[in-house]
Write a structure and sequence with these properties.
This protein is mainly alpha-helical. The chain has two helices and no strands. The N and C termini lie far apart (about 100 Å).
Length: about 60
Amino acid sequence: MGNVINLNRFRKRAEREASAKQADANRTKFGRTKAERASQEKQADQATAHLDQHRIDREEQP
């Protein structure tokens, strides 16, 4: 007689491998490096500061 094989083990392994493959694809497609995130945040802060410097306060006029 042959060995008994647990098919659930193979099914679960295949699901894990497919999930890992999909996660890797998503990381490359949607992920950003830490440097990219920091650069974008710095640019947003600079843009906000630039707009604040050119703000006209209307409350001071009589």
